[in-house]
Amino acid sequence: MPRRTLFRHANLATLRGNSPWGWVADGAMLTDGDTIAWVGADASLPAGAVADAEVDLQGALITPGLVDCHTHLVYGGSRAREFELRLQGASYEQIAQAGGGIRSTVAATRAASDDALFAAARARALALLAEGVTTIEVKSGYGLSAEHEARCLRVARRIGRELPISVRTTCLSAHAVPPEFDGRADDYLAAVIGWLPALQAEGLVDAVDAFCERIAFSPAQTRRVFDAARRLGLPVKLHAEQLSDQGGAALAAEFDALSCDHLEYLSDEGIRAMARAGTIAVLLPGAYYFLRETKLPPVDALRAAGVPIAIATDHNPGSSPTLSPLLMLNMACTLFRLTPEEALRGFTQHAARALGLADRGILAVGQRADLVAWGLDHPNQLAYPFGQRPDARVFIAGQEFIA
Ligand code: DI6
Ligand code: FE
Q: Fewer beta carbons below 10 Å: N end or C end of the chain?
């Protein structure tokens, strides 16, 4: 595609500022290379806004590209059998404690070849892209050894090289204790802390995450991982307060975490700490739904404290096997009572902040030209239907992605 493209006759949900949706009816947008050069009402398009190509969007809706800021996209195997066991009464925690759960995915991941891991992850990334996702975060955490964590993170990087989608990688080696360290969680963490510098040196780590939970790592253990990240200058995020209140959010905020994720059991103290630190709350309605959780994240209190809320798929084989960001928008509204606008801002603007990215998430001059042209009249139609996929043309860094 040519360097400068003028998009005309679209309704824009720019998400800029505080006006509803940052709405611009009959808008236009000029992109220059990978960047937005002008955005506003078609009628006020400056005469000098010349382009090499013009795209008449015929009344389509443009939103920023979606940012899926929490995924576990690289893994082998399936957990359909575990789903059956849960339907027969076993709980997620019981299955994990019996050596299933994350550990069964670790075994399948280690057994898979690099190419098999890549092919599966690529297909998942393409499914997200087809629903408007232009940036994804990908966590490790199903390798759980120096060799296999590196392999999974390389697969994530390869997705970013072979598809136009942007990939941010997060090292989640502190996800579970692998079998060879059974009963020796602290020794395992010492090993993780030992291999982190090499992963970073290879350019495989944009952030460090941990699973702080009764069935995973304690706050004291999480602190060791965060201390190591801080020594390396890496930002942190945390799976916090998903199944119980461990005080993980306050701990993460102490380390100026980019985000705390899940948060069903988040306390008032945790909220205050996140607000002080500017940490984003990433809510994951897919996991809430699939694990049939009943404790809702404290959405009203987060709003009152001014903590920005992001939404993500949490795609993973155990607790959120979804590849539909639009279903997550719907569930953020139906289950968590977000407004459709909050849900969309959560999957764009605030999700970008949860990844530390300031160059995307809204449609504004100077931002990356990552955008979606939807065959819809209004952005409230994104969150409303479920199990449907509207027409979507996806542009990444100014270029249309054609599957
Ligand atoms: N919380 C989750 O929901 C996922 N990881 C995590 O820390 C689930 C991972 C899995 O069950 O495979
Ligand atoms: Fe997760």
A: C
> What's the full length of the chain, in residues?
403
Decide: 141 in ligand 1 pocket, CB within 6 A.
no
Q: Which of 94, 102, 313 is the best mutation target for the ligand 1 pocket, counting ligand atoms within 8 Å of the beta carbon and taking the most? A: 102
Digit-coded pLDDT (tens) for 259-291 = 999 999 999 999 999 999 999 999 999 999 999
- The dihedrals phi and psi of 228, each to the nearest 5 degrees, come to -65, -40
Cβ atoms within 10 Å, residue 310: 28
Report the distance separating Cα 287 and Cα 262, nearest Å. Answer: 8
CB of 221 sitting under 6 A from ligand 1? no
Question: Residue 13's closest CA among 316, 378, 270, 257?
Answer: 378
Is 212 within 8 Å of 222 (Cβ atoms)? yes
pLDDT grade for 2, boundaries at 50, 70 and 90: low
pLDDT of 180: 97
Question: 376-397 pLDDT, tens per residue?
Answer: 999 999 999 999 999 999 999 9
- HSE-up of 162 (CA within 13 Å, CB side)? 14
pLDDT tens per residue across span 316-325? 999 999 999 9
Residues 310/396/136/255 CA torsion (nearest 10 deg): -60
Residue with tokens 């002008």: 38
Is 334 exposed, middle or buried, given 0-12, 13-18 or 19+ CB atoms closer than 10 A? middle
CB-based contacts of 275: which residues, under 8 Å, 6+ apart? 305, 306, 307
In the chain, the percentage of residues whose pLDDT exceeds 90 is 96
Residue 361: other Cβ atoms inside 10 A:
28
The span from the CA of 82 to the CA of 216, in Å, is 18
Q: Which of 171, 69, 124 is nearest to 321 (CA)?
A: 124
Q: What is the CA radius of gyration of the chain?
A: 21
153 lines ligand 1 (CB under 6 A): no
Of 307, 309, 308, 348, nearest to 326 by C-alpha is 348
Inter-residue contact 172 to 139 (CB < 8 Å): yes
Contact 55, 25 (CB under 8 A): no
